[in-house]
Amino acid sequence: MKIAVVGTGYVGLVSGVCLAEKGHDVVCVDNDLAKVERINAGVSPIHEAGLDDLLKSNIGGRLKATNDLKAAVLDSDVSLIAVGTPFDGAEIDLSYIRQVSADIGDALKDKTDYHVVVVKSTVVPGTTDAVVLPILEAHSGKKAGADFGLGMNPEFLREGVAIPDFMYPDRIVIGGIDERTLTVLADVYAPFSGVDIVKTNSKTAEMVKYTSNSLLATLISFSNEIGNLCAALGNIDAIEVMHGVHLDKRLSPILGNGERVTPAITSYLEAGCGFGGSCFPKDVKALISHGKKEGQPMEMLSAVININRDQPRQVLDRLYKHFKDIEGIRVAVMGLAFKPDTDDMRESPAITVVNELIAKQADVRAYDPVAEEEARKLFPDEAIRYCASIQETLEGAEAVLLLTRWGVFEQLPDTLRQMKLNPLVIDGRRMLPKDSVERYEGIGISL
Ligand code: NAD
Prior knowledge:
There is one protein chain. The protein is of the alpha/beta class. The chain has three domains: 2-200, Rossmann fold, CATH 3.40.50; 212-310, Rossmann fold; 313-442, NAD(P)-binding Rossmann-like Domain (Rossmann fold, 3-Layer(aba) Sandwich). The protein has helices spanning 10-21, 33-40, 51-58, 69-74, 95-109, 127-140, 162-167, 179-188, 202-233, 238-246, 280-293, 299-310, 313-322, 349-359, 372-376, 390-394, 412-418, and strands at 2-6, 25-29, 63-66, 78-81, 116-119, 149-152, 172-176, 197-200, 330-334, 363-367, 384-386, 399-402, 424-427, 440-442. The strands form two sheets. It has an eight-stranded mixed β-sheet with strand order 3-2-1-4-5-6-7-8, with helices on both faces. A six-stranded parallel β-sheet has the order 11-10-9-12-13-14. Nicotinamide-adenine-dinucleotide is lined by residues 6-12, 29-32, 35, 82-85, 96, 99-100, 121-122, 155, 157, 159, 278-279.
């Protein structure tokens, strides 16, 4: 099948590369020419494990990139729209979706073959049918259903493990205006055999995505609220509490042979310094605003966002407990990305923490295995010294803030011992044993 993927960010590029790997002829479209050139040179513009190798092995063969959207649509059977859908402060910003819909509509005007347009971006329920469809019809002069197909296919990949998530999905959700659209979408995913497929309308497909992300965000904020209470009550460690909760057999089932299964969902039931990334914060906010607009107050999800907004303060409060004034205090920030194995800094809890350190004129050193380039776009260069190693970051540090659960940070206690350093360590991710360093503070234990 010939597939055009419009937008080559985390979702578009990974989808394009993986669909080519699965045997489709894919053209990735982006209006950022620098990205297009990098992709055609076999170099991924984003950090994602395994992406460079898959890109290199497919580019120039079943995969190419272009900034010519019209040519891509004319020469394909399906267009997947994978542009960003940020939250503009009040509601979902559909400007990229509208622009691409108009461009695809213009191309469809000159297309004689049947073509299916699919929204892969996360959009609030109703967008594909109520926003994308009329734009496509107006620009193409054609009728959805009769002249072209229109569907919605949310993406569930997680950054950091995006390639395995895409290649071995847990589910495929496809929505569409008619059977013909759904059949074409099923053909796109035909090489993914044995996966549960949900076939539905576009609005339901859109809602599945928001509901999935809202559930996970809710579990995190729930755990953080419980963790904050544990800390406030004293002599309770949220880790022990959550361990006791995880052992509920409805969360961690016991098999017939007595072995216990620990499902990944339990990792969302842990206290930490908050969730970030390009999806949970913006998606939950967009759903709240959409619900309110439709007369449905979204009180629980509003609390989820408020708890998360304040959660990085738990790290700062622990810093202020030891240092009344942090001006000139050397603080080593370990981890900047919103989670390990990605360079994505969008909505990372580290942003709140580092901005406050800079505002209070702390002497900030920071280390992240891959997110430095992204961080430089957010913080003034002169305000932070980016370090190339954990050791360099720790030199002379009076406080260490652990903000991202990168595996390499597990060596922190040993490194501190070797360097004969004894700073305050604030574990924002509860990844170190609390007796592994002398001066330990963590989320979910007494302030
Ligand atoms: P992104 O910002 O990384 O990438 C979007 C890309 O679209 C950019 O490369 C941009 O240059 C391109 N673009 C914008 N306007 C364009 C136009 N008019 N023509 C061609 N290209 C254009 O976004 P992302 O993180 O890949 O997210 C895309 C969508 O997928 C969003 O709706 C997001 O919510 C959803 N999603 C993201 C993830 C994730 O982990 N990042 C997971 C699931 C779903």
